[in-house]
Design a protein that fits this description.
Elements lengths: L1 E7 L5 H7 L3 H6 L3 E6 L12 E7 L2 E3 H13 E7 L1 H5 L11 H11 L16 E6 L9 E3 L6 H12 L59 H4 L17 H12 L1 H6 L2 H8 L8 H8 L1
Parallel strand pairs: 1-2, 1-3, 3-5, 5-7
Antiparallel strand pairs: 4-6
């Protein structure tokens, strides 16, 4: 029987909830694996010494996150980045454009609900300068992206790894799973999602910023199929280093006007919402 641990770093436990959402499939998996450590499934504080498979949720934000990750990597035969925070830094990495001391000062001293607040430091792990994906610190064997990952995809990947196989990730984009019709129409304006779209036509062709062309498939396109633009939570396609730049390239082919109006300050949270820490822009900031 293979030993498995799940670890939560800086994140919201959404990936662990997706794991639990396997329901009966999780019970079936437990016939072939033994979970030795998981902060929402069992009450075990220590990290075991010999681990066959470690699922890591969350990004690196503190010195404790980094130390825990290194310990698990040292004790694990196979380590998987579990969810888009672990894979790409996630939404939290958007704060990397700001100074960490300014962030702490704002949160603990300058919010409207705070009176005479202080930034807590004593007996706490140090908050690092940037939010990072786990691959910045340790070797990652596989990634299961998504915010959160699809439960069935988790089961398929874990079962493959346990059997000694390489899990296969989807190679197409979200557009390939979207049921909406593409008519080859060039959008004249960029629209906000507060307006009502045509429910049958491609959202991007209507002018809504849907990241389907630059986002890895596997989710069955629930957002665009329910008339909400894809936000890109599953990250870039294989061999695409920067999801945001790939989307900008796709938009430039549709409308030159938007390419001229692009501003990192305004659009960073749209094009790099889940992947900023691994983007070319982030690398440029670090090199300054």
């Amino acid at each position: 029987m293979k030993s498995v641990v799940t670890i939560g770093l800086s994140g919201d436990a959404g990936c662990h909830v997706a794991l639990v959402n396997l329901h009966k499939k999780l019970l079936k998996m437990l016939k072939t694996v033994k979970i030795l450590h998981s902060y929402i499934l069992i009450d075990e504080k220590e990290i075991p010494s010999e681990i066959d498979l470690a699922l890591i949720e969350g990004a690196i934000r503190t010195t404790h996150n980094e130390a825990l990750l290194k310990e698990v990597r040292e004790k694990s035969k196979c380590l998987v980045a579990f969810g888009s925070c672990a894979c790409f830094g996630g939404i939290a990495s958007l704060c990397n454009i700001l100074n960490v001391n300014d962030l702490l000062d704002y949160v603990y001293q300058r919010t409207d609900s705070t009176i005479e607040g202080i930034v807590p430091y004593e007996n706490l792990p140090k908050v690092q300068e940037t939010v990072r994906p786990i691959s910045d610190v340790v070797k990652v064997d596989y990634m299961i992206s998504g915010c959160p990952p699809i439960p069935e995809e988790i089961a398929t990947a874990v079962q493959a790894i346990i059997l000694g196989l390489k899990p296969e990730l989807p190679k197409k984009n979200v557009c390939d799973e979207c049921k909406k019709k593409r008519l080859g129409i060039t959008p004249k304006t960029i629209k906000r999602v507060v307006s009502k779209p045509d429910t049958k036509q491609c959202l991007l062709e209507q002018g809504y910023l849907c990241l389907g062309p630059a986002t890895r498939s596997g989710c069955k396109a629930p957002c665009p199929n329910y008339n909400m633009p894809c936000e890109g939570c599953r990250g870039p396609l294989e061999n695409v280093p920067d999801q945001g730049l790939a989307m900008l390239d796709a938009l430039s082919a549709l409308t030159e006007k938007f390419a001229q109006e692009y501003s990192p300050t305004i659009h960073l949270g749209t094009f790099h919402r889940y992947t900023f820490a691994t983007s070319s822009l982030a690398k440029m900031l670090r090199s300054r």
